[in-house]
Inverse folding.
């Protein structure tokens, strides 16, 4: 079955065409989340809100995801109730849109979807862009307690690196995986050592995407991960540098391929690669 | 409401790295974004009155950034060896 059909049935993926047809649908909330936090102000999908990943989707004091109270405030101030379908999209093939998706699922929001292809596809198709922030009527929002079954922390990563009971998927580029570089070209180096967590398989996140930014078919995705022995028969932990690219892969594995136990290690290489005396593989 | 026009994208190599150049016009302004195709992190963006102007500005800035990327020495096979 084609990916789009499956994903739409699961209610996690919508097309740009679907969004274009629902621009005036007040029962949904469109939200743009970009790597480039200024992109929203330069034009966004009409009636979309903009969330900044670096100030609004994290704890700004300690390194952590957004705290529950702040999350409730963000969604409430965005006019979102627990029953509102939230449609997320963003640049870089939905990197931080997937990060936001993951956090909404951590806090139990029921109906969250990604716009397939993200901001790039919307622009490439020559669709309308707005400079206006839409009017919002704040709504009460009470989040659920965090679902930590979809989030991995360092101790279990260290444990599984040793006993191999969980499959680790490093979704960074091959050059980061091998330690040739410490950060993607053009980005600051935020770790002390290069390489990867022992036992991890390298399947770069971008291999899950087509040229236009949309996700590949289920058959292609299944083949991509099976080639590296990632079949869903074992629990999987995905990681990258700071947890956003691995959110993208987490989405693919959990929602497009239906793996039951997939977690995102958001500490990722900027946590692990800074540890003193931690084992590192560097082929 | 404005719509993006004259959309173009291409891949080239810059400072030894593959980069992805996207340009479109919104109103009278051309906007260029250059990212490194793998992993695809945002690198730079620029605006101009023409496509050529916007892309030239972005390419110049991208080159400055990419020239600073340090590559480690050939892998040693050892554990916990500094990257550079």
């Amino acid at each position: 079955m084609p990916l789009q059909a499956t994903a739409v049935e699961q209610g996690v993926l919508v097309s740009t065409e679907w969004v274009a047809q629902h621009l005036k649908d007040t029962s949904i909330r469109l939200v743009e989340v970009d790597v480039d936090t200024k992109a929203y102000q330069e034009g966004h999908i009409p009636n979309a809100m903009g969330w900044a990943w670096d100030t609004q989707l994290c704890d700004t004091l300690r390194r952590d995801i957004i705290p529950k109270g702040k999350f409730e405030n963000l969604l409430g101030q965005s006019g979102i109730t627990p029953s509102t379908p939230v449609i997320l999209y963003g640049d870089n093939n939905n990197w931080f849109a997937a990060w936001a998706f993951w956090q909404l699922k951590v806090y139990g929001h029921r109906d969250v979807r990604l716009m397939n292809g993200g901001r790039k596809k919307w622009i490439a198709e020559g669709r309308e862009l707005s400079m206006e922030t839409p009017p919002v009527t704040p709504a009460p929002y009470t989040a659920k307690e965090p679902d930590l079954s979809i989030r991995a922390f360092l101790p279990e990563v260290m444990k599984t690196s040793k006993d191999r009971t969980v499959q680790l998927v490093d979704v960074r580029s091959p050059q980061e995986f091998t330690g040739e570089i410490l950060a993607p070209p053009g980005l600051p180096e935020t770790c002390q050592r290069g390489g990867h967590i022992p036992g991890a398989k390298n399947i770069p996140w971008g291999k899950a995407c087509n040229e236009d930014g949309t996700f590949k078919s289920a058959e292609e995705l299944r083949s991509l991960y099976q080639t590296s022995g990632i079949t869903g028969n074992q629990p999987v932990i995905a990681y990258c540098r700071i947890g956003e690219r691995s959110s993208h892969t987490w989405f693919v594995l959990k929602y497009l391929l239906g793996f039951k136990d997939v977690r995102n290690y958001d500490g990722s290489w900027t946590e692990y690669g800074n540890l003193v005396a931690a084992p590192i593989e560097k082929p | 409401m404005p719509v993006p026009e004259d959309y173009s994208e291409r891949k080239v190599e810059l400072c030894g790295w593959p980069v992805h150049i996207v340009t479109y016009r919104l109103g009278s302004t051309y906007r260029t974004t250059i990212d490194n195709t793998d992993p695809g992190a945002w690198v730079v963006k620029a605006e101009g009155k023409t496509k050529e102007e916007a892309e030239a500005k972005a390419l110049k800035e991208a080159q400055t950034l990419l020239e600073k990327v340090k590559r480690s020495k050939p892998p040693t096979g050892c554990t916990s060896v500094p990257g550079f």
In short: Chain B is about 20% helix and 40% strand. Chain B has one domain: 5-66. Residues 46 and 58 of chain B are 5 Å apart (CA to CA).
